[in-house]
Each structure stands twice: as C-alpha cells, then as structure tokens.
Amino acid sequence: MTDDEAAVSPLVALLQQQLPGIPPHDCLRFVKSLARQEPYMPWDGWRGLDRVPAGSVSPGRHVGSGVYPGVERDYWVYVPQQYDPSKPAALMVFQDGARYLGPDVNAAQVLDALIHRGDMPVAIAVFVQPGETGPGLPLFGGTDNRSVEYDATGDAYGRFLEQELLPQALARLRVSDHPSR
Fold it and tell me: Where would a tag sit more exposed on the chain, N or C end, judged by fewer CB atoms within 10 A?
C-alpha cells in the first residue's frame, strides 16, 4: 500500500460501508479525487485518448407543466458521434447535470472514451439540473427544487422525467425502450 492509499484508507472503508456495491478499485479512485481537489479518473490513462470521436452536447431549457408546474431548469443532451438514428441508442440520465459535465467529472469525454472502447453501448445522455425555484431544503438554506425532486420517496420525479422532460429533450432522437438500455 502506498502512502497515498494509507492516508485515504479510512475514507475508503467508510465509503465501502455506506455504499457496498462500489468495487474497491473505484472506491479508492473516488476517495482520492475527493481528498485532493482533483478530477475523478475513471481509469488510468483515459485522458490520453485524445483521438476518440467526440460527441456533441446541446443545451436545453424546460418549464414544468404538470408535475412541477412553472418550475424552470436547464438540461443538456449528449449525443455520441457513433449515434445512428436508424438504431435506438441506450439512455442515461444524470441528476445535477452541470456538475457531471464540468471539469470534476468530464462525463461527456468519459462517455466518448467508453463508447469508443466498446465498454458501453452507444448511449444518449441527458444531464438535468434541479428546478430553479421551490421550497429547497430549509436545513441547508436551499431555495431551489432539488430536495423536493431528488429526496422525495414518491413517483413524482420519475413521472416528470418520463412524461415531460425526456420527451422534450429527446424529441429528435431515438432511444431504446428496453429497461436494460
């Protein structure tokens, strides 16, 4: 064990206790990225894949009409270069979308690399921000709709995605309706 690994081992143990499904090698990378103000590295050398075909990321804006009426939010849609409209793509949805697109995670580049390597199927990703207005989480002084959407135990957020946001975001795209994709 290196000195770096020894320094973060208590955090790795805590993370494995809280989230037992994370593989140990991913746990260590994740904890290191939190402990050192550096971006999460999904695997060694992924940034070296600079010749990987780059997908496109397009911004969108949604105004709720049913589940969260009047609540506005930004979203972005990632479409890999390998996308073929004649074949349904897999679908991924990211909450707190701006964070995943930012430099801490670089999700679009990670998806580019994973799809290029064949480690995942061609997938369209929708990066969703929480609603901009709402009751927030008073404990933390929030003023947005994040806690209402993400922390609720009902089906409202799932219905919102399925019935409102995803139809708008994916209007010109073809995604699989199979649950495994």
Answer: N
pLDDT tens digits, one per residue of 121-152: 999 999 999 888 765 555 445 667 777 788 77
Distance CA 104, CA 178 (A): 31
Supply the DSSP symbol for 98.
Answer: H
Q: Could you report the per-residue pLDDT of 69-86, keeping only the tens digit for each? A: 888 999 999 999 999 999
The pair of three-digit structure tokens given for residue 16, joined into one six-digit string:
């494995």
Q: Using an 8 Å Cβ cutoff, are 111 and 142 in contact? A: no
List Cβ neighbours of 163 (8 Å cut-off, separation of 6 or more).
Answer: 66, 67
66, 42 Cβ separation under 8 angstroms: no
The pTM score is 0.74
Pairing of strands 123-128, 90-95: parallel
Two tokens, residue 125: 């990703």
